[in-house]
Amino acid sequence: MVKYARVSLVCFIALVVQACIAGQIPVAGARADVVLLAAIAAGLAAGPEAGAGVGFGAGLVLDLMASGPVGLSSLVYTVIGYTVGLLNAGVLRSSKLIPVASAAAASVAGVLFYALGGELLGQQSLQKGNLGIVMLVVAAVNAVLVLPATRMMRWAFTEPRRDYINPRGIW
User: Fold this and answer.
1) Tens of pLDDT, residues 117-156
2) Number of domains in the chain
3) Which of 48, 38, 125 lies closest to 79, judged by CA?
4) Rg of the chain in Å (alpha carbons)
5) Within a domain: 98
6) pLDDT tens digit sequence for 41-96
7) Start-end of H helices in 1-130
8) Cα–Cα distance for residue pair 62/16, rounded to 1 Å
9) Considering the entire predicted model, what is its pTM?
10) What is the CATH number of the domain that holds 42?
11) Alpha carbon of 142 to those of 3, 67, 93, 169: distances in Å?
12) 73 with 59: CB under 8 angstroms?
């Protein structure tokens, strides 16, 4: 139960940062995507199911907050979180560059899949001509923030020690 409260808290923080900070500061006409970073970090920290769960839940809340098609962010973030977790499961963690490169590549894929999905739903996101800039900005921001985000997700998905909560075993 404590684990789910922690995960919810970290997702809530990501949504607040997205809505209040990252969504308000354009960099070369593009904005960072911290909720996508949360799904990527969950996949890196706790595996594919965790990445998919965080991607679906946080993406759905983001869809309900934004004016785009409901479910598109949720779908894209679920697929990206699951894929990152699946690919990361077979990789040895000998370098801190692996999560950074994974976050950058997954961010580019997430932005591209979102734009393609938006095109299929009539958003005309590919016709604006700034997709490359958006990919670059999202990938750069997520690559910089992935290590602390992964640490937060690792903390969120860690079960608390039972002997610490109830040292005598009496309930």
Assistant:
1) 988 988 876 667 789 999 999 999 999 999 999 999 999 9
2) 1
3) 48
4) 17
5) yes
6) 999 999 999 999 999 999 999 999 987 788 999 999 999 999 999 998 877 566 88
7) 2-17, 34-46, 48-65, 72-89, 97-120
8) 10
9) 0.89
10) 1.10.1760.20
11) 24, 23, 19, 42
12) yes
If you ran DSSP here, which 8-state letter would residue 20 be given? Answer: I
**Terminal CA-CA length for the chain:** 16
Q: Quote the CA–CA distance of 129 and 125 in Å, as a whole number.
A: 8
Q: Does the residue 171 lie in any domain?
A: no
Give the residue from 105, 89, 22, 16 showing the smallest Cα distance to 50. 89
DSSP state of 28: T
What are the tokens at 25?
A: 């500061």
DSSP 101-153: HHHHHHHHHHHHHHHHHHHHTT---GGGS-HHHHHHHHHHHHHHHHHHHHHHH
Torsions phi, psi of 161, nearest 5?
-70, 130
The Cα 156–Cα 58 span in angstroms is: 15
